[in-house]
Amino acid sequence: xxxxxxxxxxxxxxxxxxxxxxxxxxxxxxxxxxxxxxxxxxxxxxxxxxxxxxxxxxxxxxxxxxxxxxxxxxxxxxxxxxx
Length: 83
Ligand SMILES: [Zn+2]
Prior knowledge:
Distance between the termini: 42 Å
Strand content: 5-15%
Bound molecules: zinc ion
Largest sheet: 2 strands, antiparallel
Structural class: alpha+beta
Shape: extended
Oligomer: single chain
Helix content: 25-40%
Strand order of the largest sheet: 1-2
Mean pLDDT: 81
Low-confidence stretches: 1-6
């Protein structure tokens, strides 16, 4: 990913960070895409329609537009998720 200068209008409108040694920036469009997916999950939860992404984490790489879904398991001995 190219580094954007503070004067770059595209970078300014996307909220990109410009620190040279910082981790890759999160583009506003990527955060928006993930927000839409979260809203979809909320609607499925509220309406009872569809298959919810329970016990799964969805990752989106905005540079390649690839999704990765990782299944997570509850730890029966964990006080937070084992309930
Ligand atoms: Zn846990």
